UniProtKB/TrEMBL annotation:
Pfam family, one: Glyco_hydro_2_N2
Name listed for the protein in its UniProt record: beta-mannosidase
Record's keyword terms, sorted: Glycosidase, Hydrolase
Domain Beta-mannosidase-like galactose-binding: 22-199
Organism of derivation: Microbacterium candidum
Keyword check for Hydrolase: yes
Catalytic activity: Hydrolysis of terminal, non-reducing beta-D-mannose residues in beta-D-mannosides
Family: Belongs to the glycosyl hydrolase 2 family.
Span of the signal peptide: none
Annotated GO MF terms: hydrolase activity
Enzyme Commission code: 3.2.1.25
EC top class named in words: hydrolase
Domain Glycoside hydrolase family 2 immunoglobulin-like beta-sandwich: 225-306
Length: 825
């Protein structure tokens, strides 16, 4: 008897990047002068990229981010653009493998793909990749690859007619095609309506079998852990043979053979000892290398071991939305994330790292990827794993009703399956959410009448997405929307699940945040202008005023400037000059969000977290962001950092009285003597209250304030101090107070990687902040919004500048405080 030997090792897989030699040309639509004359022939193109960037590099268009160039360049989205490149193949390369796949990681958006003149694909989804078998269309020698994009504006308009119009917040029917919603513009975003090969493209050649999907799950078990891998393979047209697949996790290996008649298998390895992964502020972030191998076809992952769920068990007060990691409740200190550039192909790993490190330095522990943007690249989620930043991933549906009919239905399922499988292994991934505000819109925004029986997306949120996650990533929690009430109450009911609070910005004063007792706030925010340097780099208005032409173009919110003014006037008078207006609006933004965060946190554990709208901007604009479109930190980021510090002391109103809340978000007890004083603005202590407090780990302690009412509310405050942490309560808004003129002295000394700037206050200084970009465009400062009593000092660390003098910092447009807005008004 002769044994049959089966060779289960597939031939090598080869990949060839197709990133060079591209051109782009206008292929349809009206080209306005003077652009038409410059586009009579094709121009060089970069892939990955989009046509706006190609036109910009060629000198054909000005920077879309500057002045009113947005409207000047609106024609680009109305034009069909054709990308083309040529690549050579030898006869040996053609016959070396039985399969040749053209792989696009991303196409933006509606396009026909041709190879050597033959149509090989019709595509219409920015949010997914495409793998196209092109072996019958390849030839020896030159091969011409063409991607003909249809105008996204015209494509969306056409599809909205086919599917039927559905409610949306803006004129463009962004909800009719699967393209980033904010590409059509938002209330903080430029309208770009891009076209292009926006992610990588390559030719992959293989024979026999390839690794099509590897879904990895890491689960702690006792002191050890288990890694499971679900594998799907694809076979070519040759006779199938058994395929050997291996799983290696931290040096422990398992192997299986997938029979010739099958295309799926599972592998498991057990590790005797693993260290748990924790969100930042709660522990370390150990990650373990995992590989799934099919011959030379290897999928690599990094995983962390942790348990995670959201507690939504009803209680006496309603329904919590409490994150629990490794059996520990985690107070969520979150922020919403939008695409960090209106042209996302420009965002590389270094850019992600800078932004996410800024978030971590601001004491944040969760990033919510908003549903009107994109599924971010692997670099984003990898960095969140490494930094301990939890991620909350919306499916890409925002503020609109969506058709459930074809062709949208099939595209939605394809993108959901691909992206769930792609990112579900990440330790940082804490939640998938079906949409942003669509459940709320259906209930409260007159959608039911406007839809008149048409579908609006419910199938996706309540059926499709749960099914996809159940099949591909059952370990990842899911919520049908944000806001959402787990018990079936109104989706924005603040007593149940998550809520969004926007009435403060739209109609009410920010002090009314304290009228709410939400279980979890997934969105709220306040506007403010970008850094002064960002404004002056992006705008050439002369004079620049709050309502000058460029400022209005870079203010996208409806009645945005009017809301800024209305929201300021209760606290400060509205300055007449531009520089003080700019500072006042930045300060008011910071005070609004800081007040809200301190209030929400004081309600913990009843309130289980808050997610600020928003961390970042995609271009230079007046918006809700804490980091502006050129990456500069606004005072708002200091407010977030202060409110989310691991240990805080705040003073909060309660039933007509005041209370001190000591918040301890550390693993150690925080005990000591709490000192509460009523003081005059000149520093004189008028009354003192002492209390011994002991805040256990991850808890808070409340102490009622037992002090007399102020004799003169305009010049008195309460100060509460414990172990170096302090909170203040002012009895009046600054505009009605007796804040003195800012009197400070400045000392600057060199320090590691920068300079220490010590500011000494001769009198009370409220919300002292360095607008350090006024000294050097790339400079950064580590702290801000510091209130100093007479004689006190604070040291700021300034980086990103090679020289710094005290006279630079002491300039009144650099060394800022609320005092300046009271004494100069």
């Amino acid at each position: 008897m002769t044994d049959t030997i089966i060779n289960t090792a597939p031939p090598a897989l080869t990949g060839r990047a197709l990133s060079t030699g591209w051109t782009v040309r206008a292929a349809g639509g009206k080209l306005p002068q003077p652009f038409a004359a410059r586009l009579e022939a094709a121009i060089p193109a970069e892939v990955p990229g989009v046509v706006h960037l190609d036109l910009l590099r060629a000198g054909i268009i000005p920077d879309p981010y500057l002045d009113d160039n947005e409207s000047l360049l609106a024609w680009i989205g109305l034009v069909d653009w054709t990308y083309e490149t040529v690549f050579d193949l030898t006869a040996l390369e053609l016959v070396a493998h039985s399969r040749h796949d053209l792989v696009f990681d991303g196409l933006d958006t509606v396009a026909t793909v041709l190879l050597n003149g033959a149509t090989v694909a019709e595509v219409a989804n920015q949010h997914r990749s495409y793998r196209i078998d092109v072996r019958r269309h390849l030839q020896v020698g030159a091969n011409v690859l063409t991607v003909a994009f249809r105008s996204p504006v015209r494509a969306a308009d056409t599809q909205s007619v086919v599917l039927g119009a559905r409610p949306r917040p803006y004129p463009s029917p962004f909800n009719s095609i699967r393209k980033s919603a904010c590409s059509f513009g938002w209330d903080w975003g430029i309208s770009t309506t891009t076209s292009g090969v926006w992610r990588a493209v390559r030719l992959e050649s293989w024979s026999g079998v390839r690794l099509a999907e590897a879904r990895v799950v890491a689960t702690p078990e006792g002191t050890g852990g288990r890694v499971d891998a679900a594998v799907r393979i694809e076979r070519d047209d040759t006779d199938p043979f058994p395929a050997s697949v291996s799983l290696d996790a931290a040096g422990v290996r398992a192997d299986i053979t997938i029979p010739a008649e099958a295309d799926q298998g599972t592998l498991t390895v057990a590790l005797d000892k693993v260290d748990l992964w924790w969100p930042t502020g709660h522990g370390a972030q150990p990650l373990y290398d995992v590989t799934v191998s099919l011959g030379e076809d290897v999928a690599r992952r990094r995983v962390g071991f942790r348990t995670l769920h959201w507690n939504t068990a009803p209680d006496a007060s309603g329904t919590p939305f409490e994150l629990v990691v490794n059996d520990r409740p985690i107070y969520v200190k979150g922020v919403n994330w939008i695409p960090d550039d209106a042209f996302p192909s420009r965002i590389d790993r270094a850019r992600y790292a800078q932004r996410l490190e800024q978030a971590k330095a601001a004491n944040l522990n969760l990033i919510r990827v908003w549903g009107g943007g994109i599924y971010e690249t692997d670099d984003f989620y990898d960095l969140c794993d490494e930094l301990g930043l939890l991620t909350w991933q919306d499916f890409l549906f925002a503020c609109a009703a969506y058709s459930e009919e074809e062709p949208l239905r099939g595209e939605v399922e394809a993108e959901a399956r691909e992206n769930v499988a792609r990112i579900a292994h990440h330790a940082s991934l804490a939640l998938f959410t079906g949409n942003n505000e669509n459940l709320w819109g259906y209930e409260d925004w007159n959608w039911k009448a406007l839809l008149d029986g048409k579908t609006w997306g419910a199938y996706y949120y309540y059926e499709l997405f749960p099914a996809v996650i159940g099949a591909l990533a059952p370990q990842v929690p899911y919520a049908p929307g944000s806001p959402f009430s787990p018990g079936g109450q109104h989706p924005a009911d603040e007593l149940h699940g998550t809520t969004h609070l926007w009435e403060q910005w739209n109609r009410l004063d920010w002090a009314t945040y304290r009228d709410h007792r939400p279980r979890f706030v997934a969105e709220f925010g306040w506007q403010g202008p970008p850094a002064w340097t960002t404004l002056t780099q992006a705008l050439s208005d002369d004079p620049m005023t709050p309502d000058s032409p460029g400022m209005i173009v870079h203010q996208k919110a409806i009645d945005g400037n009017a809301k800024l003014a209305t929201g300021l006037v209760a606290h400060y008078r509205i300055p007449d000059d531009m520089e003080n207006w700019h500072w006042a609006m930045q300060l008011n933004q910071a005070n609004a969000v800081g007040t809200a965060l301190s209030w929400f946190r004081s309600l913990a554990p009843y309130n289980a977290g808050a997610v600020v709208w928003q961390l970042n901007d995609c271009w230079p604009v007046t918006s809700w962001a804490a980091i502006d479109g050129y990456g500069r930190e606004k005072p708002l980021l200091h407010a977030i950092r202060n409110a989310f510090a691991s240990r805080v002391v705040t003073i909060q109103p309660s039933d007509g009285a005041l209370r001190v809340v000591v918040g301890n978000d550390t693993d150690a007890s925080w005990a000591g003597q709490l000192t509460i004083t009523r003081r005059s603005y000149d520093g004189l202590v008028l009354e003192t209250q002492m209390a011994v407090v002991d805040a256990s780990p991850r808890s808070s302690v409340t102490v009622p304030v037992d002090l007399a009412a102020p004799v003169d509310a305009s010049c008195e405050l309460i100060v509460a101090e414990l172990g170096g942490a302090r909170g203040e309560w002012f009895f009046t808004d600054p505009r009605d107070s007796a804040l003195p003129a800012q009197q400070t002295a400045v000392v600057v000394v060199p320090a590691a990687e920068g300079f220490d700037v010590t500011v000494v206050a001769d009198g009370l200084v409220r919300d002292l902040t360095l607008l350090i970009d006024r000294v050097a465009p790339d400079a950064r400062v580590d702290s801000g919004l510091v209130t100093l009593l007479p004689g006190e000092s604070h040291t700021f660390r300034v980086t990103g500048v090679e020289e710094l003098a005290a006279t630079d910092v002491a300039r009144p447009e650099v060394l800022r405080s609320g005092n300046q807005l009271v004494t100069t008004a």
